[in-house]
Input
Amino acid sequence: MTVGVVQFPGTNCERETGIALKRAGLEPVFVLWNEPEERLRALDAYVLAGGFSYEDRSRSGVIAALDPVMTVIAEENRRGKPVMGICNGAQILVESGLVPGEGGPPVALTTNKRVRDGRILGTGFYNAWVTLRAERSASPPEPGGAEPRDSDLRDSDLRDGDLRDGDSPVAEPRDSDHRDADSSGTARPQVFTSVFNSGDLIRIPAAHAEGRFVMSDEALAEIELHGLVAFRYADDTGRADPEFPVNPNGSRGNIAALTSYDGTVMAIMPHPERTDRGNGIFTSLRCYLETRVPGETADESARKAADDSVGYRPGGYRTAARQDAPASHPAGTSLLTSVTHQAPAAPPTPASLSKYQPAPGAQEVLVKLIITDNTAVSVENALAHRGIDAEIRRYVHWEIGLDRSLSRERREELLKRIHAAGELYNDNKERPLAAPGAAGGPAPGDAFGDSLGNSSGDAPDASAFALLVREREDVAGTRVRQALVDWFGCDGLADLKRGILWTIRARRSDRDETVQAVLQSNILMNPVAQEGLLYG
Output
């Protein structure tokens, strides 16, 4: 049984993915994103390996999601072929819409936030071992829960990289056809979790910067109703504590892995391929594929996969009592309330966008790279491959809100301190520009004297369509404000918002058609995690 390990420019986890597939008795076939599609279609399943496809430009996974190879993979998945995305591969699957799939609730993966006691301890990349709890049932967690059984492996047996001799922690699949019924009564194949029991714990590495699953309350209820969560972040007792370090990235519902409605696609942010403790996921995939072999019954496949997997020594599995889930849905409501299937969030149109209005008295700062902006170049190239000929420019946008009671002298001194801190931009490779209509006039620095509205200069082209994209939860702005106040004494800094200002200029075709085509691609923003505002 052949499994394609799909590699994009920037993929860097293909070797360990191939090793993990071999441990499970599968044959890895390494496939580049631009190889002939016939080679891809000949395979039995696909794994999108981790890494930094296209250097995570614009958003992690979005450019790879627009590659033609993803159309082929989607078509093959509709024929029943399983697809798993690990870390960056998971981001690609979510951006492409394969998870949670057509007709599913809108979800997104966005910037990590490490939260404890209501305070953001950090954002962005985080690398650590995490504990995952297998979720093979959509039934709600029982409040409180019981203590782990005496026969369960203890915390000391779950230390990073250690295995205990004699353990054979892989359970035989419970159902001969590897299916569970979710709480809506729909049977779904357990393609990636058939060797696990609900509540089993595994400890595997995580290493990502944009791994936080976000969605609306309604979308989360839909996900829980249909049992789409494959794994959650949990502590060593199995409790899904929503705070750091148990939840390493702030994901809603402590979600670590999410599947499609039919169970044949899974997006998992941690790395099961980097340790043999993740073997059960790959063994489950083999078990599913073997049930499709002519002449072999599902019962035989299940027994063979379970027996063989013991020899691979996944290690570190134990069953813990189900604990309270994090309070990530409205109080007094049930996660199992019936929710109508929602269409994925629709891309914005120019007419649907609100106009950006800075807060009274706020100062805007635009930051431009003085080296080649590879993100803008990659976005242009990705759009060109889709037949969209547009010039794209990108700026970091800061909106600085100072305490209105400060004197003019204190405001000027505070602005100088904020700019000198080096938190808003790196003056070795970036230059700040005065934004159009910025309150309070130019900020300190010679670069703020640049003229605006000149397409040949550094500032945004006044004739271009300008889109300001902000995170719906601005963890980056919050973190930088905390740093400026705590470390640089900027006590009068009342608010700080960060965004990305994109400008779109049509090269040949009609401007409105070009702008609409760019917005429809979702390459500049994900409407689930971000909001877009008309700028200028």
